Task: structure prediction
Amino acid sequence: MTVKEIGPQTNRSVYGKTIFEMAEADDRIVVLDADISKSTTTTAFHKKYPHRALNVGVAEQNLVGMAAGLACVGLKPYASTFATFITMRACEQIRTAVAYPHLDVKLIGVNSGVEIAGDGATHQAIEDMAIMRSIPGMTVLCPSDPVSTRLATLALPGIDGPVYMRLGRQVSNVIHDENVSFLLGKMIRLREGNDVTIIACGSMVEQALIAAGMLEQDGIGARVLDCHTIKPIDVEEIVLAAEQTAGIITAEDHNIIGGLGGAVSEVTAEHAPAIVKRVGLQDIFARSGRDYKKLLEMYGICASHIYDAAVEIMRRKAKSIK
Result:
């Protein structure tokens, strides 16, 4: 599978296909799952490389502990399960057994955020980015579409130390073209604009682009940035947004505390004071529901809410000028 061959599909399936290909070139790659290889889309890997694939059962702490052990003997473990389980049930093991010794363990959390919809609050990982980015030495990735997910997966072996990559459950449309440059810690500008800046990650990048189109009809130019790397965050791009536009809107399928919005606000507080409006779950749990898009609308994490935040920033700017 090449970038040219990628079409709309779930980002988790792109991960599964890409790690399967990577295994052919590197026999040190091993895959670990917690009894849900179908959801993590690593079933094909398990079938072709049974001696390099481990199903540890419903035991996420063991999943991470075993991955740490494999890394200690020179293998390259990729451990995957639901985002909420790997970051919460195995948080101590990630911190102490993986991050503290700075081991080469790649952690893949699938079905993140409200995207998991009907499985409800127990399975909706809305704290995972906050948890993972607070752990010293941990890189945190949240790609937006099939193209960036493939590029992020291919980049994993070159990242020193532990990585957490967050993937959703829903089918993602292709946003990036085949020539996009994927650099760790560097946001991708998808749209230019000098009035407001929208910084989004994961599935919210598509919503940000929709909102930018709505704003354009009102004569408001919105710069749209795909923040695929939550940590290390792109300080330079955030500072430019703070200095060149009236304010910043962050958009994430995550609690507004500690995730993308928190990371961006930390940068503006230290380097370039700016208005930051955070679009995401407003420090609440979401309910379950069959229709993912209706849940986004209910909890204020869709294009119309990004639009409203941008309009509010422009109103505040106009008022300050008067």
In short: The longest strand covers residues 248-255.
